[in-house]
Every structure is written in C-alpha cells, then in structure tokens.
Amino acid sequence: MTEPRRLRGHKATATCCIASRDKPGLVATSGEDGCICWFDMRCKDLKFVMDVSNEPISSLCFNSGNENIIYVSTGNEVKCFDVHTLADNSWKPLESYNYNKEEINQVTCNSRSSFLASADDGGEIKIIDICQKRIFKTLRAGHTSICSSVQFIPWRPWEIVTGGLDSKFIIWDFSKGCPSKIVDFGLPDMHSGSNAGQCLNPAFVHSVKVPDVDMLDKIGKICVVARGDGVIDVINTESELTATKPKSSTKSRKGTQSKGSDGGVPDENGRKWLHLDYSLGGHTAAVSCMTFSLFGEKGKFLVSGGNDKLVKVWDCSRCLGSWQTGDTNELLHLNINLTKKVNWLCTTPAESDNLVVCDTTKLVKVYTVS
C-alpha cells in the first residue's frame, strides 16, 4: 500500500466518518472536539468545519432521501442539521431529540427517511418518527448492557438489528417493540465455529452492518457482526428469522440438508453463518467497525477495522459462494497495516481515494483500494 492521504481539520481524535452516495468524494468526519469536518476528495483542503457541540460526537448519518440533512449524536442527544441552510459560524440545528437517557453510541436513518434509531449505553434503542418529530417506540428488555450498534433492515421495513456489549445480537420488530430473534455470543456453543484461541476474549458485539438494497443481488440478505474476540460473523438474516417460526409438519430426514432461498446450506443448528476468524486471515483483536464498499461493484467487498491496527478487505461475493460450496479460500482480498487502532471507516464511490479511516488520532487517513 502507498502512503495514505491525510485529512486535517480535527483538533482531537476523529470518531466517525460517512461518505455521500449522491455526491461521490464528499466525506464528513466527526471528532471528540465536537466538530464535523467536510472534505471533497477532489480538493486538497478542508471544505468547512461545523462546530456543533461541546461534547464528543459519537456518530453521524445522512438522511437517506436528502443528504443535505445530517444527523449527529453527541452525549444523549441527536441533532439534525440542514447543511445548505446554515449560515457561517451559526450551527443551529433544525431539530434536537433528547429521548435517550444515556450516552448514544450510534444513530442511523432508515432507507425511507421516515425513522431514526439511536442506541445508547443503557441498552435502549429509541425509534424516532422523523415526519412527526416525536418518539415512536422505545426498545428495551433486550440488551442487558451497552447497546453499541444499530441498523435498519432495508428489505424488512419494520425491523432493525442491534449489537451490544452483553454479547447479544438482536433482530427487533420495532412496530411491536419486541425482539424477533436473540443470539447470545457469550454462550459456550456459540464459540463452536471460532478459532479456539479467540474464545479467550469476550465476544462483545461492537458493530453490526446490513447491506443497502442495491447490494442485495450481489451478496444477499445478510447481516455482518463484528465481535470483541476478533471474529466477524456473516449471518443470513432470513434463515435466522425463519428458524424462529413454528416448524411445519414436514421434516427433513436425518442426515439430509435443506437449502434456503439463496442456496446456502445450513449448519447442524439450521443456521447459515460464515465465521471470518483468525484461521482465515482475520483479526487477532476486537473488530471495532465494518462497512460495505461503495466503489466498483457496490457491496462486493466488506471492509473491517480492529484493535489489532489492521484493516481487512473481504470479498463478499466469495463469501456468498462459500455458503454453497464450503470453500473458504481467498475470502481475504487485502490487508492494510496501520499504526493505530481503528475507530471508524467508510468508503466512497469516487474513482480514487476510496477508503477513509478514523483511527485514535486527529488525522483522518484515506487509502486507495484497487
């Protein structure tokens, strides 16, 4: 790898980065300095800085229907800004939501731009109705510790996935306010697919990621889970939800394997999972964040970053094939060595400077991934 491009603008550690899909090359980053820095990959210098909080900013997301609107989580508050209507040095939010009681770890918007979800340290997830500008539902009694990550499932408009530091991955029906499926990675049998050495670290869920709708034909209806023991689980969400429904009277005979709609072969528990662990060239410490590639064929690659100071680029198209064949060779496409732990990363659909990395410094690094 060539030396990365360095983006300067933050005065403290960079915490989060997001890339525009409508405007290739436009990237927003946040930091512990309470600022949002805007960069255009085609330009050398910083575009502008929004000083929006006295507290660190933990997460950013665009409104999926209008990327002039950006949502910012800081402390236990979500702020909404219209970037095009902001006057110089006047960063007054359009809206401010103060529904979370504890510090927010991630905020995300659904594909229809109708709901926001904010996950907090108390293990609660607040679903906010954007149109009505009010709380829609509070999801609780699922996580018993910090809820670290939340994502809407675009092909299931009333469901989200969350992960937490209680080692749980949960699929929720947020219209009803209850879990549809709970997977506890802290249970002994959940380590069966992992490398034995990785079981020493707690399998906390640090991040969950779901592909966008325009990626589904390439990689299927999956969810990816980043764990504290260095394992990345690629989960077929449809098989997980099907497994929770009452079984039909027709049962497959012992010794046979039934195939799902995507052709994947379930394991002995009926799950369609793929474990990307150390034995496949994976991380040796906690995986902190992940993203699907926006460059080239959207969703072809899964990019993960970890506390082992490594960024790994996985070939998602091969991951889907490995469900069908059991062949896990050459899933790891690229390995990038860093000097610091990774806080967040994103990709841009620009022709170059594709991978943006926030590490534990104030400098944001940009790598070209071929």
From TrEMBL:
Record-given protein name: Anaphase-promoting complex subunit 4 WD40 domain-containing protein
Keyword ATP-binding assigned: no
Keyword Nucleotide-binding (UniProt): no
Transmembrane segments annotated in the record for this chain: none
Region (Disordered): 243-268
InterPro entries: WD40/YVTN_repeat-like_dom_sf, WD40_repeat_dom_sf, WD40_rpt
Coiled-coil region list: none
First and last residues of every WD repeat: 280-315
Keywords, in A-Z order: WD repeat
